[in-house]
Amino acid sequence: MQLTWLDSNSWLMEIAGKTILLDPWLVGSLMFNNLDWLFKGIKPKSYSIKQPIDLILLSQGLEDHAHPPTLKELDHSIPVVGSPNAAKVVKALGYTQVTSLSHGESYTLDNAISIKAVPGSLVGPQLIENGYIITDLIDQNRLYYEPHGYHSPTLKEESPIDVVITPVVGFNLLYVIPFLQGQKSTLELCKLVKPQFVLPTATAVGDVQYEGILAKLITQEGTVESFRQLLADYHLSTQVLTPKPGEIIELSLAKGVLT
């Protein structure tokens, strides 16, 4: 299993001989409803994916997960799996092979990978987006992704899970409104599914620069090192890996070591 963090929520995964592009933001800026004065994310460099992409996987329909400028540039014939809201976005952009997954539903890619949608982030009063459990059907290794740190209690039924990609630090608006869960929720997740590895996503250690009114009102809660200490305090053997943007991480999960 190879994982490459492309900064923010974006990941390139090579699992069971297949390449999955997850929540890609590869080019251009990030804005919500084109309101750059409110919030704007700037990547100092663009990412070019050289190998063929077998699947695009989208957890949410919001711009930081279904990034319109990136999706407009990618090949619209690539199969896409996403939450119902994300599926609407890519269908409107002209993608031709789109599968919408509701919670509990699964998708199989070439008999090599299974993708199961589970309840994920709360992004509205009655809107819960997707997290995913990705299973290598050849080696039976499993990865769980949820980009905002909202973890369903139903994950207990999925334990153990080998690799988790989720925030390990929290981000709050005006100090009190959490929009990224962090230390506590991910600690409880590690107790629940006992992963070998956790890789932080949507962290403050990437290269992305943020501007706008909202960016000035965001505060961070906890650090990667304090989360490592929490794992040690609870006698959990989970390792926290912190790749740099663009760095390839190769996991040898059968032996539980990083190569």
From TrEMBL:
It holds the Pfam family Lactamase_B_3. This is Zn-dependent hydrolase of the beta-lactamase fold-like protein. Signal peptide: none annotated.
